[in-house]
Every structure is written in structure tokens, then in C-alpha cells.
Design a protein that fits this description.
This protein is α/β, with parallel strands linked by helices and 314 residues long. The protein folds into 2 domains: 179 residues, 3-Layer(aba) Sandwich (Rossmann fold), CATH 3.40.50; 95 residues, Methionyl-tRNA Fmet Formyltransferase, Chain A, domain 2, CATH 3.10.25. The chain is built from 8 helices and 15 strands. The strands form 3 sheets. It has a 7-stranded mixed sheet. It is elongated and about 70 Å long. The protein starts with 10 loop residues before the first strand and ends in a 9-residue tail after the last helix. The N terminus is likely disordered.
């Protein structure tokens, strides 16, 4: 007589406010486990009209027919957990610290997918900081949440190479896809395998990125400026100022072109390209959005601005 093997079906919730969690959510949906709910941030005013709107993950989850909870505070989150009764909660870029009193609510607690090899780059923006720092490798860590910020014991971590062309969105997508099957692997060992405490040394921080960090300092080396572009062009965006007004920049790359640029920040139209002098070379700016105007090519901007000799981005 063939022996029946019972698979352990766990009741799960996923806490996230980012589309990067979709591979994890889809992996759980395709597994033997039950996805009870998606926990995400509340709706908030967006755009120029400040219309109240859901985040992109909430919209995606609702289109899939998933139960979406948007607790505004600890009491609302607690009420949702009491109603949904998850045995384990998986967090991926949720963006909120979980109150200590709720960490032990689910039978198996909370696990988090963090996009670095902990204890390096603890905090809100590990991928951005890995690129800004010029790292050639990063990775992801799956660990048990505790009261600290990314300090809990580790179930699994894996290293991933950073390509020279990787931007923050590209690298996040790559890490999310690679980590999804490992989330299921960790879930299968919960309650059977003990997580390993993080090393006491080697911790670094990856704090939240501010809008001001997108401002280019043109006297910096080109390598640093291009890292800034790769890390921050998607969010919060990179920018400079021209004649006292902010101008958003897109598609920066180093060029070898004949030019008359002498000082860092000087710009000119040459060979139908908007060129700018950095601390050690010349960069082309493919597109810009001047204050109050639509997106345009760098060359069109330069023609419209009628650049005088010595014109500069500050």
C-alpha cells in the first residue's frame, strides 16, 4: 500500500509596499501554502492634485483578487492579524518597523527578505547604497524579525553580482526573482531549523535616500556621478540647476567627444549632444525636464537655451 505524504500547509500573510515583492507573492500562491492577505501601507495623497490613491502593489493585489489590508497604526494591524490568523508573516520592503508586541503574534513570527548580505547595509535603501558605494557584489538575506532594524537571526543569505549597467530597479527585480524560491525553502524549515545570529562586527547602514541626494556635484569624478545616476535616477531622480531653476536629468553616460569645456559643470551643444564637464572627463546628458516643461532631449534643451560660452549647470 502506497504511503500518503502530508504536505504542511501554512497560513501566510505578506507585508509589503513595493512591486519587488511580486515574485515572492506569486511563489507563495503557486505553493502548497495559503496566502491569507497582503498587508500594505494606507492610501495617501499622490500627484499634483493630491488625490488619495493606493500604492502600486495594492492595486496589483486587488486586481488578483487578493485580500488587501492597509492598517494605519498598530491597533489596526493587530486587529487584522487577529482576524486573518497568519501562522507566519513574510515582509518584503514593507517600509515600517513592526511593533515588538506584534512580533510574537503569529505562531512562527515574522521573516524578512532584505536586499543585502547582513549585517552590511542595514536600513531602507540597501540596493541604492550598494550601487552608490561602488560595490561589485550584494545579495539578499532572509532573517527572523526582532525589535532592532535588520538585526534578527539569519535563516539564509546568498551573494549576487552587481553588473556595471545595473540600476536600482534592475537590481531589485533580479534580487526579488532570485530570492522567491529561497523564501519557500526557508518557510519549509520554519520550526525545524534555528536561525543563526548575525555577526557582531561588520555592520553598516543604508539610510533612506533624500531628494537632495539626487543633486549632481559636477566636480566629482565621472565614475561617482554615473553611480549616482544608476542608483537614484528612478527615485528620487537626479538633478542640477540652470539659471537658478531645477532641471531633472536622464541618461547620463561618458563620451569621448571634441569639446571646449574647461570647468566642472560647463555645458555646450557639440555634435548634436548636450555635453557637460565633470571632475575628470565629459558626460552626455540624453534627456532633461526643465522646470515647468515637458521631457525633451538634451540637444533640444541646449538649442532652446541658446547657451552662451561658459554656461553651467550648478
Amino acid at each position: 500500500m502506497q504511503q500518503m505524504v502530508r504536505r504542511f500547509n501554512m497560513q501566510l500573510s505578506v507585508a509589503s509596499s513595493s512591486l519587488v515583492s511580486i515574485p515572492v507573492i506569486e511563489a507563495i500562491m503557486a505553493s502548497e501554502h495559503t496566502l491569507g492577505s497582503i498587508i500594505t501601507n494606507p492610501d495617501k495623497p499622490t500627484g499634483r492634485g493630491k488625490k488619495i490613491d493606493s500604492n502600486d502593489l495594492a492595486k496589483w493585489a486587488e486586481e488578483k483578487g487578493l485580500d488587501v489590508a492597509k492598517p494605519a497604526d498598530t491597533s489596526e494591524l493587530n486587529r487584522h492579524l487577529l482576524a486573518a490568523q497568519p501562522q507566519l508573516i513574510v515582509t518584503v520592503a514593507y517600509g515600517r518597523l513592526i511593533p515588538v508586541e506584534l512580533l510574537h503574534g503569529p505562531r512562527f513570527g515574522w521573516i524578512n527578505l532584505h536586499f543585502s548580505i547582513l549585517p552590511k547595509l542595514r536600513g531602507a535603501a540597501p540596493v541604492q547604497w550598494a550601487i552608490l558605494n561602488g560595490e561589485t557584489t550584494t545579495g539578499y538575506t532572509i532573517f527572523k524579525l526582532d525589535k532592532g532594524m535588520d538585526t534578527g537571526p539569519v535563516y539564509l543569505s546568498k551573494e549576487v553580482n552587481i553588473n556595471e549597467t545595473d540600476t536600482t530597479p534592475i537590481l531589485l527585480e533580479k534580487l526579488g526573482k532570485l530570492a522567491a524560491p529561497d523564501i519557500l525553502e526557508v518557510i519549509s524549515t520554519i520550526g525545524k531549523v534555528r536561525a543563526t545570529p548575525q555577526p557582531l562586527t561588520g555592520a553598516t547602514l543604508a539610510p533612506k535616500i533624500s531628494k537632495d541626494m539626487g543633486k549632481i556635484v559636477w566636480k566629482n569624478p565621472t565614475e561617482n556621478i554615473l553611480r549616482q545616476d544608476r542608483a537614484l535616477s528612478d527615485n528620487p531622480g537626479i538633478w542640477s540647476t540652470f539659471n537658478g531653476e531645477r532641471i531633472s536629468l536622464y541618461g547620463l553616460h561618458e563620451v569621448l567627444a571634441t569639446n571646449k569645456l574647461n570647468q566642472a559643470g560647463e555645458i555646450e551643444l557639440a555634435e548634436d549632444k548636450l555635453l557637460i564637464r565633470t571632475g575628470d572627463s565629459v558626460v552626455e546628458i540624453a534627456e532633461v525636464i526643465p522646470a515647468g516643461k515637458k521631457r525633451m532631449s538634451g540637444a533640444d534643451f541646449a538649442r532652446g537655451a541658446r547657451l552662451a560660452p561658459g554656461a553651467k549647470f550648478e
